[in-house]
Amino acid sequence: MCENNEVILEARHVTKRFPASGGRTLVANHDINLKFQKGKTLGLVGESGCGKSTFMRFLVSLDTPSEGEILYRGRDITKLRGEELRQSRQHIQMVFQDPTSSFNPKMRIRDIVCEPLLNFGRITKKEKDAACRRLLEMVELPGDFADRYPHNMSGGQRQRVAIARALALEPEILILDEATSALDVSVQKTIIELIVKLQREKNITIGFICHDISLIQSCADQVAVMYLGNVVEVLPAKDLAKNAKHPYTKALIGSIFDISMDFSKPIESIEGEAPSPLDVPAGCPFRGRCPKATTRCAAEQPKLRTVEAGHEVACHLLDEEGKNKTGASALTGRI
Amino acid sequence: MLKIDNVTISYKKVPAVLDFSLDMKPGQIISLVGESGSGKTTVIRAVLGLLAGGGAITKGDILFDGESLLSKTPEQWRSLRGSDISMIFQDSGAMMNPTRKIGSVFTEYLQTHEKISRKDAWAKGEEMLRKMRLPSPDNVMGSYPFQLSGGMRQRVGIAMAMTYQPRLLLADEPTSALDVTTQAQIVRQMMELRDTYGTGIIVVTHNLGVAAYMSDYIVVMKNGHIEDQGDRDHILHHSENEYTRTLLSAVPSMEREQGGEKDV
């Protein structure tokens, strides 16, 4: 469904290393290649410490990768400096997890929402009132909220303001970093509905970071699963439940508590926890927890391979057709 | 075993929980679900007599084995906590002193509850950690809380709470800070506690999936009162309550088709 779509943002071989104590290196991202298609949502899912936020920060130029490039409409934004970099920020905006800490508590909502517009000279100070009202109405908040301070609002309302601020410059790409994780489920649902609605109206491309794989599958087009700094599987969200191939993706899906699950069956879960990104095992990063790991998994790191259109997996256990070499029924039967 | 009888709890005269009643049998697992600010944590803190900042029970009574908990003296409370009733918090690391090692905290905990030498207490602590399937318990005993992962800290918390095989375990969002794969492990482990020790558990959670999976009985709270209650089947499939249904429909589900939120 996505072959003909225009790729407007592309990460190529992005690697990030952080220096750590004792002369060690922490590899937060290892050779990440992802494509963002115009008007589509790419979901990035993984457990804490897998490097998903680190990666998204490169996209909004809050940090630069150690290696690799990020192409926005063919231009490498990691090399931009000064005024050029500032201008490029208009195109890619971000919504953070916790709006209370990403807003200045002493600024009124009007100033928060209009600050980007003033920074880029899109409006004059006189036009602030009208611009703010328009933006608040876009996120379904009453225009009178302009005079409030962030602490006078609920979490869901604040997140709407954060969306209004991010969309003020009409960016092409919006990055949402766990934007709904701090909210109650019913509020989360309304925020997601708002985002989907705005995406349709404005044809925005969205990068959505989330640890909740069931939320991702309900609102993304394409999903990338990360484990210890590596993308282990990329697949269309609609295939997630039925067609996930990587053992880690399956484990993630298997350990969800779903209200429509079969309660008589014990919950499936892999043992152990993700190792520290400081000592990623050689070979496949997942092999320590993988029930099917072989000697080959310890020796060489699997590369992402296309198994079918729009579906890539990095796992030695799968051959080219995407079938399990060893005991297909055993693995799929677990889920 | 536990009977919460028409309790109203107020913080500085502002009621946070209104007319809350609950009857719990031994070995039962009950979930309190609801959105933030609905008073679920307040209820279980009241059971343990640990209401924060000026909270007080202004009406009703809480009975444990037929005895009123509210009329207990501080000494009686102390002997009850940890032995008959214990609690797990959202982040067990935060309840431990960050400058002391797990072993030191654990032995102190054991020594306040029973006359036991430091050496024996250490061994008992290790034994408990082993029972909770923590890898290399001696290593854990010699670690500071920040050196352990969230899942391990939570297991340490469960090990401490389960040492004296309490009949009632109160768990306040025990898995909310954890990753999904770890969450599944902890939930499974908590359910084993009931099977092994016959412990009754009250879980406070905002995750309806976890609540539905774990519990025999679910109480839905909203703005400090009980909005709906019943066994799992009733709440999930037969509830007439509008709020319960709204909550359920807001939970993202893998099984459901995408259509609800976005057409493909």
TrEMBL record, chain A:
InterPro entries cross-referenced by the UniProt entry: AAA+_ATPase (IPR003593), ABC_transp_ATP-bind (IPR050319), ABC_transporter-like_ATP-bd (IPR003439), ABC_transporter-like_CS (IPR017871), Oligopep_ABC_C (IPR013563), P-loop_NTPase (IPR027417)
GO MF annotation list: ATP binding; ATP hydrolysis activity
Short name of any one Pfam family annotated for the protein: ABC_tran
ABC transporter domain boundaries: 9-253
Keywords attached to this entry: ATP-binding, Nucleotide-binding, Transport
One GO term of the biological process aspect: transmembrane transport
PANTHER family in the cross-refs: ABC TRANSPORTER, ATP-BINDING PROTEIN, TRANSPORT ATP-BINDING PROTEIN
Protein family per UniProt: Belongs to the ABC transporter superfamily.
Name of the featured protein: ABC transporter ATP-binding protein
TrEMBL record, chain B:
Keyword Transport: yes
Cellular component per GO, a single term: plasma membrane
Stored SUPFAM superfamilies: P-loop containing nucleoside triphosphate hydrolases
Location of this chain's protein in the cell: Cell membrane
Domain ABC transporter: 2-248
Name of one Pfam family that matches: ABC_tran
Record SMART domains: AAA (SM00382)
Main subcellular location of this protein, as a coarse class: membrane
An example molecular function term from Gene Ontology annotations: ATP hydrolysis activity
Membrane topology summary: Peripheral membrane protein
Family membership noted in the UniProt record: Belongs to the ABC transporter superfamily.
Name of this protein: ABC transporter ATP-binding protein
Annotated source species: Anaerosacchariphilus hominis
